[in-house]
Amino acid sequence: MCLYIDRFNPPYEGLIRKVMARCSETGISLSAAASCIDHLKGFGLSENDSCDMAMVLGGDGTILRGLGFFKNLNVPVLGINAGQLGFLASAEKTGVVEAIERVARGEYIIETTPVLRGEMPTDKALTAVNDFSVNRSMIGGILHFDLFVGDARVASIAGDGVVVSTPFGSTAYSLSCGGPILDPGLPAMLVVAICPHSLSLRPLVVPDDQVISIRIGQLRSTGPVVSADGVPSGTLKTGEILRITKGTGSCMTVRFADEPGYYSRLGLKLGWGVRG
Question: How many domains does the chain have?
Answer without folding.
Answer: 2
